[in-house]
């Protein structure tokens, strides 16, 4: 049942690429189901309203200084957003002429101040979890281990299994080293604890995480959960990229053999240094595999773009390599020439990769990426994890293991099987498809 277009949903995304995308996808999905959509967004990393002419965009000032934004201390930035956006969001909603038409507020779990505003204005709220169920459970585990005195843990324990979560080793726990530990634990406690929201939306799938979703529901309040991933498959035309995509790489991909290209991207936030860059470059060159490499401007410390690539590298790889600043990633992953993805295991990238059946080389950088890398390599077994310091011989070896050796073939087969299971989830009658219908009914009830 589609609602009359008067039911309005207010969406509050967290202003980072990996969080804006799923929220805009959710907006598109709900708009297609008949809801009117208002996006309340900060000026920081503001999305382009022209890409979403059907949405109403309301911008609120977040009051972050240039230094705060440039600090890369994500924990403190998110804490500050929660302190400084509460009143602006409240005022923005109060000023609306017809507040009564707001069905609910859906907020990113990092923007937990929205729940307080919703309560104050007597509007129901729903949380959107933009990462995996495994990552939420790992965060709950951190809080418990801290209370039990296991954290901080000594180096000697880094390979030990986490009590109660044996898939993970202590080193896989998403402990952030930005800012002070107190601030990190404060943020974690807030994002894990849903006090009064009426439901949770998950961008994941039963075929990946059903038992973990049940476990998290047992550990948290028994409110309804709606598992509707992978959301990008329900909203294929939704464009949410903050950076300009360079589509010339698709022409380059068209010239390559099927399954031959390794695609490399470390997402929208991770960075690297010159030494690691050199090891990556020579590892790729020595692997002899064609590669498409996204190097985001500013992602190599001390460089604007690729001026610190090692001397002789470009000449050595010639036409075998293609480097861009930002790629149309979903199109790249769906391209028949792409046979592997060296990824940082951000959750969106992981869902996009699984949806196309592409096997992975996992090189997580921080936060939930470590948890996801462990699940990709050891639970779903659709990738190889590159651990330890980056070293060219090891990189060459792992690239060849994935792209040319029999081991890689087996991994590819599992990735293709998982792709089919994911398709079953989002096609008519599948678990995500049904869950989405139930979400719409729930929102209207
Ligand atoms: C951040 C966190 O690092 C991650 O762990 C968390 O799960 C979400 O937020 P991010 O670095 O943004 O992740 O990675 P990811 O979640 O994978 O999102 C990146 C998005 O950018 C993907 O949707 C991807 O398709 C897109 N992208 C990336 C491009 O469109 N082009 C590119 O060249 C690279």
Automatic annotation (TrEMBL):
Pfam families: UDPGT. The keyword Glycosyltransferase applies. One of its GO terms (cellular component) is cytoplasm. It comes from the Eukaryota. Keywords: Glycosyltransferase, Transferase. One of its GO terms (molecular function) is quercetin 3-O-glucosyltransferase activity. InterPro entries: UDP_glucos_trans. Belongs to the UDP-glycosyltransferase family. This is Uncharacterized protein. It comes from Manihot esculenta (Cassava).
């Amino acid at each position: 049942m589609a609602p009359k277009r008067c039911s309005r949903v207010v969406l509050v995304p967290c202003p980072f690429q990996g969080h804006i995308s799923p929220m805009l996808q959710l907006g598109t999905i709900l708009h297609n189901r008949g809801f009117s959509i208002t996006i309340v967004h900060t000026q920081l990393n503001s999305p382009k309203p022209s890409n979403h002419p059907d949405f109403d965009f309301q911008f609120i000032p977040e009051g972050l200084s240039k230094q705060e934004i440039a600090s890369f201390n994500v924990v403190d930035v998110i804490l500050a957003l929660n302190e400084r956006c509460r009143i602006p969001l409240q005022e923005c909603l109060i000023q609306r002429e017809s507040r009564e038409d707001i069905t609910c507020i859906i907020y990113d779990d990092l923007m937990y101040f929205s729940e307080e505003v919703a309560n104050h204005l007597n509007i129901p709220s729903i949380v959107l979890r933009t990462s995996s169920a495994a990552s939420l459970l790992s965060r709950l585990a951190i809080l418990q281990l801290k209370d039990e005195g296991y954290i901080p843990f000594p180096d000697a324990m880094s390979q030990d299994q986490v009590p109660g979560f044996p898939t993970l080793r202590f080193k896989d726990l998403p402990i952030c080293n930005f800012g002070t530990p107190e601030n990190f634990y404060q943020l974690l406690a807030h994002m894990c604890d849903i006090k009064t929201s009426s439901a949770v939306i998950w961008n994941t799938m039963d075929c990946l995480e059903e038992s973990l979703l049940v476990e998290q529901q047992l550990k948290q309040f028994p409110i309804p959960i709606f598992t509707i991933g992978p959301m990008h498959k329900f909203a294929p035309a939704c464009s949410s990229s903050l950076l300009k995509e360079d589509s010339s790489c698709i022409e380059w991909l068209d010239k390559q053999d099927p399954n031959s290209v390794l695609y490399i991207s470390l997402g929208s936030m991770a960075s690297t240094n010159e030494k690691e860059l050199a090891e990556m470059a020579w590892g790729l060159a020595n692997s002899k595999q064609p590669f498409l490499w996204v190097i985001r401007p500013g992602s190599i410390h001390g460089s604007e773009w690729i001026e610190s690539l090692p001397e002789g590298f470009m000449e050595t790889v010639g036409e075998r390599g293609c480097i861009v600043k930002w790629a149309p990633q979903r199109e790249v992953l769906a391209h028949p020439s792409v046979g592997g993805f060296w990824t940082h295991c951000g959750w969106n990238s992981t869902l996009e990769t699984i949806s196309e059946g592409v096997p992975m080389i996992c090189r997580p950088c921080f936060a939930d990426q470590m948890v996801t890398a462990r699940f990709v390599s050891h639970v779903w077994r659709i990738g190889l994890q590159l651990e330890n310091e980056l070293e060219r011989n090891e990189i060459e070896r792992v690239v060849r293991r994935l792209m040319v050796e029999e081991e890689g073939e087996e991994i590819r087969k599992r990735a293709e099987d998982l792709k089919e299971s994911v398709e079953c989830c989002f096609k008519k009658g599948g678990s995500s498809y049904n869950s989405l219908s139930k979400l719409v009914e729930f929102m209207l009830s």
